[in-house]
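Re: the 124-residue chain
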Amino acid sequence: MTTEVLSRRVDPTLTAVGVVALGYLATLVALPSGPSGPVLLAVVASALLVLAGTELATDATVRSVGAFLLVSLSLTAMTWVLSTVVETLATTMVLLAGGITLCSYGLHRYELVALGLVGDPDER
Protein backbone atom coordinates (compact mmCIF):
# COMPACT_ATOMS: atom_id res chain seq x y z
CA MET A 1 0.00 0.00 0.00
CA THR A 2 1.40 3.41 -0.91
CA THR A 3 1.70 6.31 1.50
CA GLU A 4 -0.92 8.27 -0.43
CA VAL A 5 -3.52 5.49 -0.15
CA LEU A 6 -2.70 4.95 3.52
CA SER A 7 -2.98 8.66 4.30
CA ARG A 8 -6.47 8.73 2.81
CA ARG A 9 -7.53 5.76 4.92
CA VAL A 10 -6.02 6.73 8.29
CA ASP A 11 -6.62 10.09 9.92
CA PRO A 12 -3.55 10.96 12.01
CA THR A 13 -5.55 13.05 14.47
CA LEU A 14 -8.01 10.25 15.19
CA THR A 15 -5.12 7.83 15.51
CA ALA A 16 -3.48 10.13 18.07
CA VAL A 17 -6.73 10.43 20.00
CA GLY A 18 -6.99 6.64 20.05
CA VAL A 19 -3.41 6.33 21.31
CA VAL A 20 -4.11 8.84 24.07
CA ALA A 21 -7.34 7.05 25.06
CA LEU A 22 -5.51 3.72 25.21
CA GLY A 23 -2.77 5.35 27.28
CA TYR A 24 -5.32 6.63 29.80
CA LEU A 25 -6.99 3.21 29.95
CA ALA A 26 -3.61 1.50 30.43
CA THR A 27 -2.87 3.90 33.29
CA LEU A 28 -6.20 3.07 34.94
CA VAL A 29 -5.57 -0.67 34.57
CA ALA A 30 -1.99 -0.42 35.85
CA LEU A 31 -2.94 1.85 38.77
CA PRO A 32 -6.50 0.94 39.87
CA SER A 33 -6.31 3.13 42.98
CA GLY A 34 -5.52 6.13 40.80
CA PRO A 35 -2.22 7.68 39.81
CA SER A 36 -0.28 9.97 42.13
CA GLY A 37 0.27 13.61 41.21
CA PRO A 38 3.58 13.23 39.33
CA VAL A 39 2.37 10.15 37.44
CA LEU A 40 -0.84 11.91 36.43
CA LEU A 41 1.14 14.96 35.34
CA ALA A 42 3.40 12.76 33.20
CA VAL A 43 0.42 11.01 31.59
CA VAL A 44 -1.35 14.29 30.80
CA ALA A 45 1.84 15.91 29.50
CA SER A 46 2.59 12.97 27.23
CA ALA A 47 -0.99 12.99 25.94
CA LEU A 48 -0.76 16.70 25.15
CA LEU A 49 2.57 16.20 23.39
CA VAL A 50 1.17 13.38 21.25
CA LEU A 51 -1.91 15.38 20.25
CA ALA A 52 -0.08 18.69 19.68
CA GLY A 53 2.70 16.96 17.74
CA THR A 54 0.17 15.23 15.52
CA GLU A 55 -1.59 18.49 14.80
CA LEU A 56 1.67 20.25 13.96
CA ALA A 57 2.69 17.34 11.73
CA THR A 58 -0.58 17.64 9.79
CA ASP A 59 -0.01 21.31 8.97
CA ALA A 60 -2.20 22.84 11.67
CA THR A 61 -1.43 26.43 12.52
CA VAL A 62 0.60 27.17 15.63
CA ARG A 63 -2.25 29.39 16.82
CA SER A 64 -4.78 26.54 16.76
CA VAL A 65 -2.34 24.18 18.50
CA GLY A 66 -1.72 26.86 21.14
CA ALA A 67 -5.47 27.25 21.68
CA PHE A 68 -5.80 23.48 21.96
CA LEU A 69 -3.03 23.32 24.56
CA LEU A 70 -4.56 26.20 26.53
CA VAL A 71 -7.99 24.55 26.61
CA SER A 72 -6.50 21.16 27.50
CA LEU A 73 -4.43 22.56 30.35
CA SER A 74 -7.43 24.55 31.61
CA LEU A 75 -9.63 21.44 31.63
CA THR A 76 -6.89 19.46 33.40
CA ALA A 77 -6.54 22.16 36.05
CA MET A 78 -10.31 22.38 36.55
CA THR A 79 -10.52 18.60 36.88
CA TRP A 80 -7.74 18.57 39.46
CA VAL A 81 -9.33 21.40 41.48
CA LEU A 82 -12.78 19.81 41.36
CA SER A 83 -11.43 16.41 42.35
CA THR A 84 -9.76 17.90 45.43
CA VAL A 85 -12.93 19.77 46.45
CA VAL A 86 -15.59 17.16 45.59
CA GLU A 87 -15.50 13.69 47.12
CA THR A 88 -16.61 11.52 44.20
CA LEU A 89 -15.26 11.32 40.68
CA ALA A 90 -18.79 11.09 39.28
CA THR A 91 -19.69 14.49 40.75
CA THR A 92 -16.47 15.94 39.37
CA MET A 93 -17.32 14.60 35.92
CA VAL A 94 -20.86 15.99 36.03
CA LEU A 95 -19.66 19.43 37.13
CA LEU A 96 -16.94 19.47 34.49
CA ALA A 97 -19.36 18.35 31.75
CA GLY A 98 -21.83 21.04 32.83
CA GLY A 99 -19.13 23.70 32.71
CA ILE A 100 -17.99 22.57 29.27
CA THR A 101 -21.60 22.59 28.04
CA LEU A 102 -22.19 26.14 29.30
CA CYS A 103 -18.94 27.41 27.79
CA SER A 104 -19.71 25.70 24.47
CA TYR A 105 -23.18 27.23 24.36
CA GLY A 106 -21.76 30.66 25.21
CA LEU A 107 -19.21 30.36 22.41
CA HIS A 108 -21.95 29.22 20.01
CA ARG A 109 -24.12 32.23 20.87
CA TYR A 110 -21.15 34.59 20.58
CA GLU A 111 -20.39 33.25 17.09
CA LEU A 112 -24.02 33.66 16.03
CA VAL A 113 -24.01 37.29 17.15
CA ALA A 114 -20.57 37.98 15.63
CA LEU A 115 -21.70 36.58 12.27
CA GLY A 116 -24.94 38.55 12.36
CA LEU A 117 -27.15 35.46 12.31
CA VAL A 118 -29.20 36.55 15.34
CA GLY A 119 -31.81 39.21 14.75
CA ASP A 120 -32.68 41.97 17.18
CA PRO A 121 -35.92 41.07 19.07
CA ASP A 122 -37.08 44.72 18.85
CA GLU A 123 -37.17 44.57 15.04
CA ARG A 124 -40.27 42.37 14.90
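The radius of gyration is 19 Å.
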